Amino acid sequence: MHLTRQVLRNLPTPYGGYDISWKRQMYKRLAWHFFGRRRTCFRIQIRTVERALRNSTFSGSARKEFFKELNTTRLEAACSEHGVIYKEFLKTLDENDVQINKTMLEKLAIYEPRTFQSLCDMSIQYQKDNEIYTKNSVTPYGELTRGLQKPML
Amino acid sequence: MANNRVLQWATFARTWWIFDANHQCHIKSAKRIALYLQGKHKPIYHPLSDIGDHVVVINTAGISMRNDFWRKWKYNHHTGYAGGHSVTSAWRLHELDQTKVVEKSVYATLPGNLLRRRMMRRLHLFTDDNVPDDILQNVTDQIRQVTVVPRLIQEYTQEELDAMPKLFDWPDDYEIEFKRRKEDDEIKKYLK
Amino acid sequence: MSGGSIPSNFLKNVLNNGIGRYVCQMKRVTFKFCKQRNDSQGTRDFIENHLLDFTNAHPGVVVYIQPRNNRPSKIVAEYLNGRSEGIATTKMPQEEICQWLEHLRTRSGAEIVRLRKNHHTDNPSTQGVWHPFTNKDTSLNLAKFPDNDSYKVPSTVSTTDRLLEMGRKLRQEKLSEKS
Amino acid sequence: MSASIRSGLKVVCFRKLLIPLQQVPSRCYKKGLSKDLRIQYKSRLTVGPEPDRHRSEFINWNYDSEVYSFGKRLGEDLNDDILKKVFLHRSYIEREKKKIQELGIAVGTSGLDVDHNEQLAKSGEQLASNYVLIYLRNAFPNYFEEGIRSIHEYLMSEDVLCNIGRHLGIPELIMCDDFPLRESTIVTTLMAFIGALEQEKGKERAHLFVRDFILPQLIGKDINEMWNVVNPMGLLTAVLHFQKRGLPEPRLLWEGASSTLMSVYHIGIYSDQKLIGKAPGETAQIAEEMAARDALKRLCQTQESRPALLLGKLSENLKLDEKKVNISAKDIIEQFSPKESTASTSSKSIFGIFKGNHSLNKV
Question: In its keyword annotation, does this UniProt entry include Cell inner membrane (chain C) (predicted)?
């Protein structure tokens, strides 16, 4: 056993003297969750890992944009179900000093629908009191806005 | 566990909507239908979770296009073989199949990803009012129309028509009806 | 490191610790150091000056000292959930060792890994999670569809009617001027 | 181009190897290390995993200090010999006696007359289960006795108690002969600790220990699922009859996609025109059954939105009256024997589901 180990240690290394297996281990550690030969074969693996590393450079900002857009879609949907336009809803919350940020609003819309409903009712009442005319009297999903609708002259 | 299963079933349930496309602009109505097909009207929306709803569109025959788009709006087709490209104008396509105009505009509005075909299968198009019962039974709510339905000329009473201010009157023997264009052999082939 | 390859986990508590009573999760700590080497100097100073204060302050933690010749100095902490954490303290001054010991003591023993969400709840909703019918009235049950007139665009005065109105008004003014 | 150069290089090196078999090892050990590691890894696989060793076999282990800090860690300052007694099992004593007999020393002088922890475990178990029952009856005053029993059975079940024991560091300190430990030994040791607490510090302290360690395991668990009610609608009719209220009538609140596979039904149960419970379901029957369960939850105040259990600091000056008795579901059902009931029983009412328009849909 000792002899074979001695021979194995001194086998020639093609890459100019340093041991390539450490580098392969590092790439393998980055590709444990890939599919098929991308997980096992180094020459295929290296392309996908470097693509993944490139993607991770701009994934930070892409993540933020995605969740911001998702948040607005969800809140627009929730507001329109109660007949309130999303922009007017946010303005009402600001003017009434209701300091709930958008992520919490989204959680309320999904997990505490009655609380969100009362926020929307407050917004409708506020629009009525301050004669805020909702420009189009229908939300993007077709629900009637129950704020004040300016009669077409 | 049964409780959580049932609550999850209700939250992700697919509801059926109905939309009356009579005298509605085909682009605006497509935009609104596409939102419902994607499920963007739900606070639990996520592009990966396929929670779109079914939409039953009735009166697609009555769809409307602005100005003279019936003549100018062209649909391109291609059979995939060499020289297989063909162009059809809207009126001809509408005469061949009265649901196609709505279907194509919704298909164009939906995001072009793998879910689009699946969402299109949840779009049920009917040329007029009668919808089979098992589909109508599923419908739980209706989507509001997109454009104001204009008051048709037939709906004006004779007195209102007379009271309408006029500059001059047509001579009696003048034929009001547009000249019917000559019957096209091509269409006859399809319509048979 | 791309996001997918970094291990991640959800927030978890050991045995709802802290709700009934807080139990220090570190049950045992071992100081391994060498008597001669100078990179264990920090650990040796720590043992001389701070170790007794630590043991008096925290009787719930068993402390072991393991001198090993020519080995790098290390702190190994064992936790109640069966995991153990080690920190290499070579060339570390005694103050830093105190801080690391404090870090080890106040941990829950779980692996420090990227958290998918920094909060956890077993019943997220008290008013009932949203479902497509929460904001709808039960009268929907009886409604017959397609019910066309209540889903039209809210009717407004059309332009032809407004023109007719203006025309009528002008004619009246003319008549009143004449008379 | 580069491939050809590299292949050329390989040939050159290979010729170099053949001449001196015994090469002067180069100073940097990195060259063959990964190959060595791979060989070691392969041999490790053939040998198999490390055998489980008892923690006491390692060098950094001192039983007395471990036992001392175990007490201190939980905030109970019991003296050492009672703590050691808690961890001493009968099997350990018998094994030691056998060993001594083999060595031929008289048994009396071996100092093994210390008794084991069975007696403590029995009293600890008794105290813990009583206290859990009393606490649950006071925490859920309107809940049925059977429900309370099912929660108690869950809490005092072997895997929950064993999990608690494992996470308090008990298994390493146990003196008994079987290794790896059986779950029952860990549970008896935990109970023995409670018994010791009761013996040394009194009942109050032992109750506090149970309230701080066993009861928090209820957090996040759905207590209604622990008691399997086979016919919730029947039980609901019995309860409403017992409370002299109108019999439950299931009504369809909403219905979606009913002619497809993905149908959803929301059924609400009314008694005297008041909505007492509602639930969704894949079919009308499932929805009705779940609505009955929901109604029962609201009647017994064990629904998800109930106030949290009073534990830890909140329960400092908690007064629990021992004598509290909860109504038993069996008595209610016996009172409401089927002979008396004229109204349609639960099964009939399903077919009589009316599409009712009840604007009050918020419970």
Answer: no
